[in-house]
Amino acid sequence: MAANHPFDRLDELCRKTRSAVCVGLDPHDALMPPDTRGRGLLLQVRDYLHDVLDAIADVVPCVKPQIAFFEALGPDGYTLYFEIVRAAHRRGLFVVGDIKRGDIGTTAAGYAKGHLGPDDGSAVDAVTLNPYLGVDGIKPFLEVGRAKGRGVFVLARTSNPSGKEIQDVGAAGAGVEQSEGALYRRVGALLEQWGAACRGARGYSDVGAVVGATHPDEGALLRRELPHTWFLVPGYGAQGGTAADVARTFDAQGGGAIVNSSRAIVFAWKEQEKSGGAARCAELARAAAIATTEAIRAAVAARKVAK
Amino acid sequence: MAANHPFDRLDELCRKTRSAVCVGLDPHDALMPPDTRGRGLLLQVRDYLHDVLDAIADVVPCVKPQIAFFEALGPDGYTLYFEIVRAAHRRGLFVVGDIKRGDIGTTAAGYAKGHLGPDDGSAVDAVTLNPYLGVDGIKPFLEVGRAKGRGVFVLARTSNPSGKEIQDVGAAGAGVEQSEGALYRRVGALLEQWGAACRGARGYSDVGAVVGATHPDEGALLRRELPHTWFLVPGYGAQGGTAADVARTFDAQGGGAIVNSSRAIVFAWKEQEKSGGAARCAELARAAAIATTEAIRAAVAARKVAK
Question: Which of A7, A290, A298, B11 has the fewest CB atoms inside 10 Å of its own CB, making it the most exposed?
């Protein structure tokens, strides 16, 4: 099992690229480069994402297509999502499918079959899942994933402001000091339990957690409490999480976490220039991916020195 | 707004058909009628669901295609989901898209655009959503839905056993008597709040709740606590909920809830005979839909008399 453990593969790619950055592929229509060829949104998204994959494949370990932006484009967009997954695999990238599905029994098995099952390159290496239905909603994904060497990241502490409405339920009081009993910590404990049967070479299981960069104290607490759980960390940059914040979600060896950045990389061109074709925009995405990698690497290294 | 309130339309259809049954369209491959024409699973599913829609359209108000079973069939299955939604609308049915999406900001807006946005008949009348991210994950759907007269059903208390792992967090103790503070009750209170701005003719908002039939005491409690919230009640029959159980989720006028039954209706043929073509199987689905309607109608009426 460990030979094909999903997060062993991810770890190896992080070491090879010296990067812990996941590039979020969120093809938001309002942020696409100018459509100089006038062929319509779907083909524009398609070409631009292929350009971005070409530009970043050797500098980051991982991409995360967000399926919602593809579903927004209708059934053809959904088909494109799988084309982009295959294209990312051909370029050697680890692919997280950001699908946040959550259902039970044969229904969850249906999602697992569609997203973790295929053997033609269109299955992702890991999906994101929602824990609201408990282990019944996770198990069918682990059954398919463990047969195929694929994993899951389950929402624990999300990066958005209103996550607290739900994820703090059960806490003794406000703030991380009084978070004993809070739902997000309960979910974290369950993730350690659900993953215990499938740990890889460095001790991490195939059940990861989504832990938002915007809650650095909680991220650090979860890092201590969940020693066998990979973290996928959204919320860096645009949403307010700093490199020093996300550094706290890494383990003492500087591993066990991957930091997602979406629009600040893929749509870096928006901040920098208003002209230039899609190829130039993809080059700017590469530069942003490198800069993000370096900022995070420096912050993780600084934290190791400070310890 | 109220003239095109989604749950006013649903209520009207319930009265017209004298049924509070939602037929779940879960095209599970292992339950499909024998493929006498040998054209492969996708076309078999397509034809059978059209047959079922023809057979049930005048006896129930509502259908609920479960998108996971379509995603299991790959991108062509996803396309088929929208074809079935359009076909259900052409037959005058209220359509709940069981997609259980949950994400934030522009991501949630992407899902909302894809599932509640289209004007070509392929948008459902309501989607199911997951509350784990709080109001940030719901609002983008309400923005699209309120412009189009479409609604949402948010998971509160799910029907599966392990739902308790998560949904009971915060409760003072075990059982409904000690459920004060439990996540599912907190979610229920939020649904009343989120829907307050958009109530229809009978006082129900456009933010419904999913409340499993397998927890009848909790269902009855939520019915009392959430007077403006429509309930979508899964878990009837196969999962163990009885007609008397689900009757407790209806209001004093016998409205405000719809009971889902999936395989016991669509795949009724499995229990009854092993031969006969797809057309005969669809007839058995119609008979099961009528029998389910009558069982629930009788239980709701009995409860009104007993009060």
Answer: A298
